[in-house]
Design brief:
With 412 residues, the protein is α/β, with parallel strands linked by helices. The protein contains 15 helices and twelve strands. The structure holds pyridoxal-5'-phosphate. Pyridoxal-5'-phosphate is lined by residues 59-61, 85-86, 88-89, 131, 157, 159-160, 181, 183, 194. Belongs to the DegT/DnrJ/EryC1 family.
Length: 412
């Protein structure tokens, strides 16, 4: 049992009889790896998005690695992204030696600010990586216009946003690649899991090659590829490694694959969850409306503006706290919410340009003033998940109101 009246999260995807039946059926299959359910899940996910290709992966992290690799982002390439994200968005880029440039954010949506992106473009810029923060779509039109003008690729980190739309289009299908997460706290889950989505046939083909350990290319010229005096090493006949010494493989080393695959059990879970995604997202939207209505008029508290062209699916529910109105710091507000009201608060996300590895590269406080001020002074995420009870929703509203009242009465 949680010590909180409203814990930050649980497994938040209403796992039930459908999931149990789906997983049980999967366990009866001949294989739990690379079987029919993975393909079915991919087809279903692509269809839900209106995308040409979806590839199931072991996580959003591995989908992001595939994105960096298929786009061949290399050392010295500059990639522009947002600091308001889970740091793993940039990890595949760091791992490949790319230079990360941090654009600032919009103070309401917490999404990357296209004007700030424009100011960072240089001749070395290769790609823009956006994150649909909390399930609210980035303003994609100006981002895509910049990409077209400067010949840049666009990757959408959709970890929070399966089914979210921008001007009627599902996010993840607007840029070159969309990467999704099905971690157990996300709007739909496969336990751990992700998806790599693209409308580009060439990118999709490369991702298939790279997402699995494979024998690359045709088995050409075996005779001349023998090593030194050796005839045929025993492992040469193993279908998994037999092309390891072909010329094709050597010439295409950048295309060496990895194991980023999703298991059949996870895919079964994903198929059951996919069938409920719309309902799960709508329930989050309904909870958000209750919270918006309940918190309206609370002094010092504002909620995010709803934009009709980009309705949020509320992976996160963010409120903004105004220290000048309440008279005490945001830290005091959070402390009371947790200690007196039993509302567990987790802030998402610490501006990642201030993490030690980026500070070591010269990034510093002041680089993204809106992201910094918003994170340190204003933003608070309240718990949101589909199983919140009416009593818990009421407690969130009452808890925020009581806390503001208590703090206002004890100005220092
Ligand atoms: C914005 C963002 N990107 C990527 C990820 C990584 O997802 P996964 O845990 O599936 O690797 C997360 C996880 O929380 C995230 O919030």
């Amino acid at each position: 049992m949680s010590r909180f009246v409203v814990p930050y999260a649980g497994v938040s995807n209403e796992l039930g009889a459908d999931e149990v039946a789906a997983v049980t059926r999967a366990l009866g299959q001949q294989t739990l790896s690379m079987g029919p359910l993975g393909r079915q899940f991919e087809d279903g996910f692509a269809e839900m998005l209106g995308a040409r290709h979806a590839q199931a992966t072991s996580s959003c992290t591995t989908a992001l690695f595939l994105a960096a690799q298929t786009l061949r982002l290399e050392a010295g390439d500059e990639v522009i992204t947002t600091p308001q994200t889970f740091w793993v968005t940039t990890w595949p880029l760091q791992a490949r030696g790319c230079t990360i440039r941090f654009a600032d954010i919009d103070p309401d949506s917490l999404n990357i600010d296209p004007a700030s992106v424009a100011a960072l473009i240089t001749p070395r810029t290769k790609s823009i990586w956006v994150v649909h923060h909390g399930g609210r779509a980035v303003d994609m039109d100006p981002i895509m216009a910049l990409a077209r003008e400067h010949g840049l690729t666009v990757v959408e980190d959709c970890a929070h946003a399966p089914g979210a739309t921008y001007k009627g289009r599902k996010v993840g299908t607007i840029g070159d690649i969309g990467c999704f997460s099905f971690h157990s706290l996300k709007n739909m889950t496969t336990g751990e899991g992700g998806a790599f989505v693209t409308n580009d046939d060439d990118i999709a083909g490369k991702a298939r090659e790279l997402g699995t350990i494979h024998t690359w290319g045709p088995l050409v010229d075996r005779q001349s590829d023998r090593i030194g005096p050796y005839g045929q090493p025993a492992y040469y006949r193993d279908p998994h490694v037999r092309s390891a010494f072909t010329k094709s493989y050597r010439d295409n080393r950048y295309l060496i694959g990895n194991n980023y695959r999703m298991s059949e059990v996870a895919a079964a879970l994903g198929l059951a969850q996919l069938g409920k995604l719309d309902r799960l997202n709508k329930r989050r939207q309904e909870i958000a409306r209750h919270l918006d209505d309940g918190l309206a008029g609370t002094p010092g508290i504002t909620v995010q503006r709803e934009r009709s062209e980009a309705p949020s699916i509320y992976h996160l529910y963010t409120i903004f706290y105004d220290e000048a109105v309440v008279g005490r710091s945001k830290d005091d507000f959070i402390k009371l919410l947790e200690q007196v009201e039993g509302i567990e608060i987790v802030l998402r996300y610490f501006p990642i340009h201030l993490l030690p590895e980026f500070r070591a590269l010269g990034h510093e406080f002041g680089e993204c003033p809106v992201a910094e001020q918003t994170y340190f002074e204003r933003q608070v995420q309240l718990p949101i998940y589909t199983q919140l009870t009416d009593a818990q929703i009421g407690h969130l509203i009452g808890g925020v109101q009581r806390t503001v009242e208590a703090l206002s009465g004890s100005r220092t």
